[in-house]
């Protein structure tokens, strides 16, 4: 009985000792401190390690270079740039206009019809439910849209419409949607 009482007393004294050293503001013993306190690195900071004696660092791209497969848009995101883009024709092959319009319709139905409507009247699903307001119809005379200005608007965005350049795989898809928008405008003005 005394042996079991001694064990209980020893156990209670150990628990008391452990709780008396407890501080809720800092953790006690950490088994894997790197998981709790990570080493912070700056993005382009040179890091020395045993594998590379000179250290490693993320390389900044050379000045005036562009990513492979990307061609920057020649017009700025200004009113002057939009006016210059208005005069730009579509660079797509006119012999494949049916294919381009079919692909443009497919992309328009995914990205544009929810606001602009399937026929381009500005009565998409979000507009009908008054989630967004002020979406224009393509046949609005004051709009005076062209294939170049449509491309510019999709590339940079305009007013409350953001850019859609990142949603498309390449600039060809932007031109296909712009041509389809012009087709919708022609259908509305008939």
Topology at a glance:
Blueprint: H1 2-20, H2 33-36, H3 79-86, H4 97-111, H5 113-116, H6 125-128, H7 147-156, H8 171-188
Helix pairs in contact: 3-7, 4-8, 7-8
Catalogue the unreliable spans: none
CATH architecture of the domain at 79-188: Orthogonal Bundle
What is the helix tally?
Answer: 8
Give the end-to-end Cα distance, rounded to a whole number of Å: 104 Å
Structural class: mainly alpha
Main beta sheet? none
Radius of gyration from the alpha-carbon trace, in angstroms: 32 Å
Global outline:
elongated
CATH topology of the domain at 79-188: Cytochrome Bc1 Complex, Chain D, domain 2
The first-level CATH class name of the domain at 79-188: Mainly Alpha
Pick out its properties.
190 residues; mainly alpha; Cytochrome Bc1 Complex, Chain D, domain 2
Could you explain the architecture of this structure?
The chain is mainly α. It has a domain at 79-188: Cytochrome c-like domain (Cytochrome Bc1 Complex, Chain D, domain 2), CATH 1.10.760.10. Helix content is 43%, strand content 0%. The protein is built from 8 helices and no strands. The protein has helices spanning 2-20, 33-36, 79-86, 97-111, 113-116, 125-128, 147-156, 171-188. Helix 4 (97-111) packs across helix 8. The protein is elongated, with a radius of gyration of 32 Å. The mean pLDDT is 81.
Condensed summary:
With 190 residues, the protein is mainly alpha-helical. It has helices at 2-20, 33-36, 79-86, 97-111, 113-116, 125-128, 147-156, 171-188.
